[in-house]
Write a structure and sequence with these properties.
Keywords: Repeat, Signal. By secondary structure, the protein is mainly beta. It contains 1 helix and 26 strands.
């Protein structure tokens, strides 16, 4: 018994020493980071933005965000999607037995435009009453281009289309056809859909669209069914070029679940969640479940890749990307919806400088931080999916010394 107690004490002592050493190592790393005088943009959440919405409106899963040239913030969400997979996506559960259960709440229209002060400036969207377009079964992305057109994609099972509207919600064009990838041999009550990452006419559950005004092109993260980046002409919607991981021709290979210890995947996993073009012509692709960013030239030539929180499983760590607003776009921001951070990188070195936010419901925290966008002043806007169902603003407080590396809380200091 004495020997057992002695061994237990030795084991506990060794464990405590290991913990202290680990903590000490982390502290030394932090001190080193601070001592190096690293600089990065600092942010504070604005708990009063946006302002309360009219008409008792509430959000469902807030699934896309874009900022136009007037610094108006646009979001698309799943307020009352007819194709919602379950009630957790929606702004408010459907009425019980066809009867409204109380005064709360009214799902907001699918597309919401906020002015810089946080007021709702416009709202529209949803299935066409005349059948002139096919609204996505599951909203997923929104972007406003340099001509003022609003582009919307979807990641519902049959969403093979992209829609184009005016700012006021007038339909302009549809590229691709809903259910185009439907497997004709599947039963009608349980339809299946086939990927085709070489299809030049339809898409495969689009995750995001990025606009290049100089070339009049759109970079499509295509996405949840297909395994590619597709570049389209913004006037015709025609696909001009495409590529898969490492700049290879895309394939529809179904890969096993991600394993950080396994050899690096040679193709994108679903979903390819973003494809963002920088001012100097590089395309940053969110290979979300592979925990990596792959960087390409605009013609699809592979440049390099970096891994982010490589041990992250489930939905992965790289959800969305945007850049700082200085001309050089010195900093790159990554929304990480599993670890619930916004990660701040030095874009030249692709070194993570620090991250802010962690899981929770209070302002500055995240639950499924899904999309990210910046305005002309360098402020960051985020949307949250799952049960987060929220739009938040993080005010740019200027570049300053990095004082903490992991999960800084961006609460206002005054």
């Amino acid at each position: 018994m004495k020997r057992l107690l002695k061994n237990r004490k030795a084991y506990v002592g060794a464990s405590l020493l290991a913990v202290m050493m680990a903590l000490g190592g982390a502290q030394l790393y932090l001190q080193e980071a601070v001592a190096q005088g690293k600089q990065a943009p600092r942010f504070e959440v604005d708990p009063y933005w946006p302002k309360p919405m009219p008409n008792n409106w509430v959000l469902g899963q807030a699934i896309g965000v874009s900022v136009d040239e007037r610094d108006h913030v646009w979001i698309v969400h799943r307020g009352s999607d007819p194709g919602a997979l379950d009630n957790t996506e929606l702004a408010f559960p459907p009425a019980r037995n066809g009867l409204r259960v109380g005064e709360c709440c009214n799902p907001a229209p699918a597309v919401l435009e906020f002015d810089p002060a946080g007021n709702v400036a416009n709202a529209w969207g949803g299935p066409s009453k005349t059948g002139e377009y096919e609204w996505p079964a599951s909203n997923h992305s929104i972007v406003v281009d340099h001509k003022g057109f609003v582009w919307i994609g979807g990641n519902g099972p049959g969403d093979a289309q992209i829609l184009k509207f005016t700012r006021d919600g007038k339909f302009v064009a549809q590229y691709g056809k809903a259910d185009a990838r439907k497997d004709a041999s599947s039963p009608a009550d349980k339809p299946a859909f086939k990927a085709d990452s070489t299809d030049m006419n339809n898409f495969g559950r689009v995750a995001k669209i990025m606009i290049d005004p100089k070339a009049n092109e759109g970079y499509v993260a295509d996405g949840y069914l297909n395994h590619r980046v597709a570049v389209i002409d913004l006037d015709t919607g025609k696909i001009k070029r495409m590529w898969g991981a490492y700049g290879k021709p895309p394939t529809d290979e179904v890969l096993p679940p991600y394993d950080p210890a396994a050899p690096v995947a040679q193709q994108f996993r679903n979903p390819v969640h973003c494809a963002m073009l920088s001012n100097d012509g590089f395309v940053y692709v969110c290979d979300r479940p592979n925990d990596r960013v792959q960087i390409f030239k605009s013609d699809g030539a592979f440049v390099k890749e970096i891994f982010v929180a490589k041990d992250t499983l489930a939905d992965g760590s790289v959800w969305d990307i945007d850049f700082s607003k200085d001309p050089e776009q010195k900093y790159l921001y990554i929304a990480d919806g599993v670890n619930e951070h916004v990660r701040v990188f030095d874009r030249q070195s692709m070194e993570e400088l620090y991250n802010f936010g962690y899981g929770g419901r209070q302002p500055g925290m995240f639950l499924g931080v899904h999309s990210i966008a910046t305005d002309s002043k360098g402020n960051i806007y985020t949307t949250e999916t799952y049960t987060g169902k929220r739009l938040q603003k993080f005010v740019n407080k200027g570049v300053g010394a990095v004082t903490t590396v992991n999960a800084a809380m961006p609460w206002p200091t005054q």
